[in-house]
Amino acid sequence: MSFDLPPVIKQAERVRAMAEVAVASWRRDHRHDHGSELRRQAKAVVKAAHLAWTDKARRALLLAVLSDAIDELKMDLRLAQQIKLYRSFGQFEEIMRATRDLGQQCGALRKRYPLQQHSTGQNAAASRAAAARPDTEYPGRLAGANR
User: Fold this and answer.
1) pTM of the prediction?
2) Closest among 30, 33, 11 to 95, alpha carbons compared
3) What CATH code is assigned to 7-115?
4) Which residue among 39, 53, 88, 99 is the one 20 to 30 A from 70 at the CA level?
5) Within 10 Å of residue 94's Cβ, how many Cβ atoms?
């Protein structure tokens, strides 16, 4: 029996591998300064992708964390381009395209698993009113208890 990873994890791992290859060609001082930060960000993206996929109970929240991690990685990739660390613009462009594709996959998953479920059912107004009652505001308090 084989285990196939979802596309978002495969893409995150691909981006991390591309970042590792790019950083390996940088000068030593940049490799240890900017390179270690870029590696850390790429690792955080892979970790967030794995967590978002495996933890179904907190998937929506973890997808938001993944989205933020991808945005931070994009900022670091752009900074490295601004200080001319890549071998060529093509190398930078390849990594940014892969990261953009990862962001698009994450965005599609966030639409599929929204952070907040909005009540749009037949009695949506009543369920919102029940959620706003003072008795349900304090979880340690028994509902209907005398005040």
Assistant:
1) 0.74
2) 11
3) 1.20.1440.60
4) 88
5) 15
- Residue-wise pLDDT tens digits, 114-127: 977 555 556 656 55
Sequence spans of domains, the chain: 7-115
Rounded CA separation 10/51 (Å): 13
**What does each C-alpha distance from 108 to 17, 59, 101, 102, 112 come to in angstroms?**
23, 13, 11, 10, 6
Tokens of 58: 């907190």
Nearest-5° Cα angle at 57, 49 to 99: 15
Q: Which long-range contacts (CB under 8 A, 24 or more apart) does 14-21 make?
A: 14/98, 15/42, 15/45, 15/73, 15/95, 15/98, 15/99, 15/102, 16/42, 16/43, 16/45, 16/46, 18/94, 18/95, 18/98, 19/73, 19/77, 19/95
- Which two tokens mark 9? 């994890």
* Token pair belonging to 25: 């060609």
